[in-house]
Amino acid sequence: MNARTHRLAGSRGWFARSTGLALSALLWAAAPAAHAEEAPALVPFSSASSGQAPAPWRFTTLPNKTATSFEVVALDGQRVLKVEADRSYGNLVHPTRTPLNAATTLAWRWRVDEFVENADLRTRSGDDGAAKVCVFFDFPTDKLPVSERTRLALARSATGEQVPSEALCYVWDGKEPKGSALINAFTKRVRMVVLESGPATRPGTWMAERRNLLADYKRAFGDEAGDAMPDVVAVAISADADNTQGHGIAYFSDVMLLGGPNAQQAATTVPPAKGQ
Fold first, then answer.
1. Which letter, b or e, does each residue of 43-68 get, where b requires 16 or more Cβ atoms within 10 Å of its Cβ?
2. Does 7 reside within a domain?
3. Which DSSP state fits 154?
4. Side-chain half-sphere of 211: how many Cα atoms within 13 Å?
5. What is the pLDDT of residues 92-143, one digit of tens each?
6. How many structural domains does the chain have?
7. Burial code of 84-111, b = ≥16 C-beta within 10 A, e = fewer?
8. What is the mean pLDDT of the chain?
9. What is the pLDDT of residue 18?
10. Alpha-carbon distances, residue 268 vs 41, 60, 76, 209 (angstroms)
11. How many CA atoms lie within 13 A of 258 on its CB side?
12. Beta strands 190-197; 207-212: pairing state
């Protein structure tokens, strides 16, 4: 594995196991604040000078786990992120502080060359996947039900990390229907949206995505969020195959997180997906 490894301290943890989204509070605090006029907020993979994703992208995993591989490679004339899960677990995380508003947009391209066999997002035993893009939100914990606050506090105590209070994951799954909205099998703190389902019509096809984060956030967390618009505090690329002992391969282009009044217009600069 060529990515820098950062192993989380503490126990397996209900939240950390299901998503690997437990981040270091110091990592977030060290990142410069993202202002509305500064777009994109994420360092592009294509700027990497080696096979390692450029800082402040950081690798996170769990103790005693084989690490998922994240490597910047040349493919189709571009420098992109290759993610290979082999009976493994891991996430590549970029801290940020981006306001959530009507213009906040996330855009990227991806392709899946191999899905994790026997993955099933609806079960704990099958909670694996070859390709996920997750967004962490800083939702005020005092607005959560007491039971959820308690579980979150336990997760933070067990991992020693400032575990995000809400996470929305976009998934390219091997079998769940496109458009499916799911609650993670381990925790309500994580909601999932299936953007793509099954193999592309032609092998090697890149699919382009552009999401309005506020609209997706309201659909995913509207049951508890009300009118709240919490900041985006991190974006993660995730892949795991530790439950099923399977294997998966996916590729990701630069990920663009855009905030402010020009976000939606700026997102249209993302190159079209090859093969579409």
1. bbbeebeebbbeebbbbbbbeebbbb
2. no
3. H
4. 25
5. 999 999 999 999 999 999 999 999 999 999 999 999 999 999 999 988 767 7
6. 1
7. bbbbbbbbbbbbbbbbbeebbbbbbbbb
8. 81
9. 41
10. 16, 31, 21, 10
11. 22
12. unpaired
Contact residues for 252 (Cβ-Cβ < 8 A; gap 6+) = 45, 80, 81, 83, 108, 109, 110, 131, 133, 237
Which amino acid type is present at position 252?
Answer: F
276 belongs to a structural domain: no
What does the alpha-carbon distance between residue 83 and residue 72 come to, in Å, rounded to a whole number?
A: 9
User: CATH number for the domain including 213?
Assistant: 2.60.120.260
Q: Using CA atoms, how far apart are residues 83 and 103, in angstroms rounded to an integer?
A: 29
The SS3 call for residue 85 is strand
Helical segments of 133-262, H only: 146-159, 213-225
- Please report the pLDDT score of residue 151 as a whole number: 75
Residue corresponding to tokens 């099923």: 244
Residue 133 in any domain: the answer is yes
- pTM reported for the whole predicted model: 0.80
176 phi, psi to nearest 5 deg: -65, 135
Q: What's the domain range around 261?
A: 14-166+184-189+200-267
Report if residue 252 sits inside a domain.
yes
* Residues present in the chain in total: 276
Structure tokens at 182: 């799911």
The 8-class DSSP code of residue 61 comes to: B
